[in-house]
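Section 5: illustrative case.
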């Protein structure tokens, strides 16, 4: 999302906002050519993202048309998992998982570990639902977590297509997520959506704005939570379930048709000032990068941080390495006596550093716009 979005992430890169559709299409095309040409490098979030892996044959098949099995329909399964995981005020935590991130020792393990070693975060695992985007991820989820939900593909999705299809499918999956989250809101559940490459060190709930219906983390925070020119990163968002937020998600989802080829986050940037959104009365708030931090931008104070996102990072291995370092930093912080804690700060980015990126990944990490894709 925004300037520093990971490729293929929960939100598109905002870097291109304002650029023409052609540039965007070229960007997407370049990205996928690269992903196809360099499959082993796993450079792109597309290649490692829910969207990317969703395209594999192991993706969960949609139930046959006309399936009305009342017990196992997607709707019934969703209802059950939401009920089981919700807090008393119908709030859940949602993340999406694909097979690469679900592998042992990969992103999901670091993610879960952070809840266990964080300050007042372990109990939040009881309210976390992992939304699997393929069968492998779902199987792993069932082994390691209580609340798993397998999101199926929509009917008519053609898995036999080729390159164009990949581009299509990639965006389709991102939009499927927005559609899904809107559905959760419409069912009366508020949520925190978190990408899995975010470590949780403190319970974010007490640090959310009490008057915000839609609160979203930022790649870059201007300092003003109400400032619509903040660069949102959809990897972390709190959304209160109201009729207005449900309508807002419907509007956002529908807006993809007016902006073909764009990621959800790009489109969010394009619609956030729309008169319709203002009329809905959704109170939009942006979250400070001091508390909801990321590699793109973060404070130095581990006494205040709630979450840390491995955004601004290209490549799954690098990401996992830096996420591991974040856990180490936190452990070091917790093991330090109170009076000395101010001396402990982040040792990241290390592998995710942009300098390294330029040197060792070079042009392969650059898009048609010349900007690294680094959500
Ligand atoms: C929902 O409940 C949790 C757990 O008690 C609490 O921390 C959170 O602030 C509540 N959310 C709202 C919007 O009241
Ligand atoms: C870090 O945050 C804590 C808690 O908000 C605060 O008490 C402390 O003064 C901060 N340290 C620095 C160096 O700003
Ligand atoms: C990350 O950096 C460390 C230290 O520079 C290095 O040993 C390791 O191989 C790097 N990992 C990746 C995936 O580049």
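Designed sequence:
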């Amino acid at each position: 999302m925004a300037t520093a979005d990971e490729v293929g992430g929960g939100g598109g890169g905002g870097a291109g906002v304002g650029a023409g559709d052609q540039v965007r299409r070229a960007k997407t095309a370049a990205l996928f050519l690269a992903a196809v040409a360099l499959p082993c490098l796993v450079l792109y979030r597309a290649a490692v993202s829910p969207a990317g892996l969703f395209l594999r044959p192991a993706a969960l098949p949609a139930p046959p048309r006309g399936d009305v099995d009342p017990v196992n329909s997607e709707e019934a399964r969703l209802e059950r998992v939401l009920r089981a995981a919700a807090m008393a005020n119908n709030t859940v935590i949602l993340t999406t998982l694909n097979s690469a991130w679900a592998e042992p020792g990969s992103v999901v393990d670091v993610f879960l570990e952070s809840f266990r070693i964080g300050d007042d975060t372990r109990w939040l695992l009881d309210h976390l639902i992992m939304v699997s985007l393929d069968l492998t991820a779902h199987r792993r989820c069932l082994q390691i977590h209580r609340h798993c939900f397998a999101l199926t593909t929509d009917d008519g999705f053609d898995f036999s297509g080729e390159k164009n299809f990949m581009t299509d499918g990639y965006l389709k999956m991102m939009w499927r997520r927005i559609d899904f989250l809107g559905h959760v809101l419409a069912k009366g559940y508020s949520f925190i959506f978190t990408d899995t490459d975010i470590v949780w060190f403190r319970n974010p709930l007490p640090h959310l704005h009490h008057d915000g219906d839609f609160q979203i983390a930022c790649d870059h925070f201007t300092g003003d939570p109400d400032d619509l020119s903040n660069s949102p990163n959809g990897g972390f968002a709190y959304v209160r379930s109201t009729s207005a937020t449900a309508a807002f998600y419907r509007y956002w989802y529908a807006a993809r048709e007016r902006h073909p080829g764009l990621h959800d986050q790009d489109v969010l940037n394009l619609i956030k000032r729309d008169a319709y959104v203002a009329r809905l009365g959704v109170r939009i708030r942006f979250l400070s990068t001091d508390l909801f931090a990321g590699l793109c931008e973060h404070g130095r104070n581990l006494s205040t941080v709630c979450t840390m996102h491995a955004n601004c990072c290209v490549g799954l291995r690098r990401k996992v390495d830096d996420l591991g370092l974040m856990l180490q930093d936190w452990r070091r912080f917790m093991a330090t006596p109170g009076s000395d804690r101010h001396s402990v700060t982040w040792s990241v980015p290390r592998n995710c550093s942009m300098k390294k990126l330029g040197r060792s990944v070079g042009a392969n990490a650059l898009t048609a716009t010349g900007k690294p894709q680094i959500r």
